[in-house]
Design brief:
The protein is an all-alpha fold. The protein contains five helices and no strands. The two termini are 35 Å apart. 16% of the residues are buried.
Length: 132
């Protein structure tokens, strides 16, 4: 797992940098900088709004006595998507917008649920429930 994280955090920025340099060759440096700034600002705005909506839904579900499982996964997706949108790059922006926008987020939610279900069945995740 550590090796995968090291690869992720070293190779991804290199690929992003190459793509941004190529984009600046096709357009201009200022256009590329503008794209990076606009996606960061729009991404932060979307993540903030989606985060507020998700928090409101979590509160409603908790007040109704239900566990907000779907909303917690939504929150995770928006949090990761917002972080990716603040990171300069084309690939991270595409993935970030996909995680923040509700329609495309559903694809990621299904994958996350399958992974969690598999790990629960395998016993690699333990859930401890405590009553207060």
């Amino acid at each position: 797992m550590l090796f995968r994280l090291i690869l992720l955090f070293t190779i991804t920025p290199i690929i992003e940098l190459i793509l941004l340099l190529e984009l600046s060759k096709l357009t201009s440096v200022w256009t590329t900088v503008g794209i990076v700034l606009v996606t960061g600002i729009v991404g932060a705005y979307l993540a903030k709004n989606q985060g507020r909506l998700i928090l409101a839904k979590i509160k409603i579900e908790l007040n109704e006595g239900r566990m907000p499982g779907d909303q917690l996964i939504n929150g995770l997706c928006v949090l990761v998507g917002g972080a990716l949108l603040l990171t300069p790059g084309i690939i991270t922006d595409i993935i970030g917008f996909s995680l923040v926008i509700p329609g495309t987020r559903e694809i990621f939610k299904r994958v996350i649920k399958k992974i969690l279900s598999k790990r629960l069945r395998d016993g690699s995740i333990d859930i401890h429930y405590r009553r207060w």
